[in-house]
Amino acid sequence: GNKKDITDMRGAIEFLKQEGDLLTAKAPVDPIYEIAGIQVALEEGPALFFENLKGYPGMRSVGNIFSRRDRIARLFDVDDWKQLKWKCLEAIKHPLPPKVVKKAPSQEVVYKGKNIDVQKLLPVLKHTTRDGARVCGSGNVLICDQWARGGNEFSYKRMHFLGKDWASITSSPATHTEAIIFMDHRKENVPMTININNSPAAMMVAAAGGVHSIIPLGTDEIAIAGALQGTPEEIVKAKTVDAYALAKAEIVIEGYWTTETIWETEEAEKDGRQDVVPFFPEWTGYLGKTWKSRKFQITGITHRKNPIFYNQL
Length: 313
Known about the structure:
By secondary structure, this protein is α+β, with helices and mostly antiparallel strands. The chain contains nine helices and 17 strands. The longest helix is centred in the N-terminal third of the chain and has 10 residues, at about 10-20.
């Protein structure tokens, strides 16, 4: 067989295809309700690749990559998924720092200024009729260097693209990003990138709730991902902000977490109370509620040619 390369999602898709563990949908599917419904119905089955998204020509998407523990173990060459934790522990103990590159697949196509239209570009899912919006749970926020106490902070955040070039991004209490946004840099615009559909290792690290005594703020979390996949992650200077992006991401949104606070939906703003109005299904399995968060100002978007979106669930 071909040499396995899971340093980006395309390599992981190729590997799962060879393993007979990828179901490809060629018929048009709708990001509103339909994709989420298919993913929930087939959660215990193969990973899913959607080649044809209604309303988004040229864009594909994947989902259910991480829906089975045995699949995750196979991606990382572990025979028994119960042993995967030891590989993760090794990665935390012996990180591999990222490599800075000049040219990146994630920057093949670049949008700036008036050409930015994040709503038109991203096939963000809507999961249920009760969702308050089409909420994006696919983005991995990367905050670097002096903004992250000298480390690389990398994590999933829920975001709602309320306009062509702005969004709400919400940081949960007691997370590293909350310390960055509400303590260290409360009065400053924080430059960062939102990386969508990265290497499985990077996405695993982003999703992990690091115990702060083991992975304190200031840790290079990208280096943990490098160690987990056995080869350094590649990072590249962002085009429009003083930040870095993952070189092998499918899509990158560049910008600033501003000091302005906004509600996650218009309905929540009218209501005026936090944690009351429905938002979208959370990782905990219930419908999350809207909060007031800080506004993200988009300054640029870059992506690969024929990009692949990641359908969160």
